[in-house]
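Bug #77: duplicate submission created two jobs. Keeping one. Sequence:
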Amino acid sequence: MNRITHKLNTMARRKFRIRAKVSGTTERPRLSVFVSNKHVSAQIIDDSKHSTLAQVSTVGSKAAKGTMTERAEWVGQEIAKKAKAAKIAQVVFDRGGRAYHGRVKALADAARAGGLEF
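Kept job's structure:
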């Protein structure tokens, strides 16, 4: 197994471990974060109804500029605005197998500053 395959496999295992414990309900939906090499996206998901309540991504967005950390902060602010518009105050945080550091932490802090509780 080469280095990249190993890295992807360990990240997938972490993601499945997290998803086994974290589940979104109608009262507290799940805030799922995905970070790629070029883009950041976040979704608020109600797992009991299998529906996405709000989503924000930097793909195709002119407002998201700067470094990846600045883009992650922008996504956090926007997802908090959309959650407030959908009358969602509390969520559970799904970091998607990534460490709570850097871009993921910047997104979470911006979402908390925008009014989300988790």
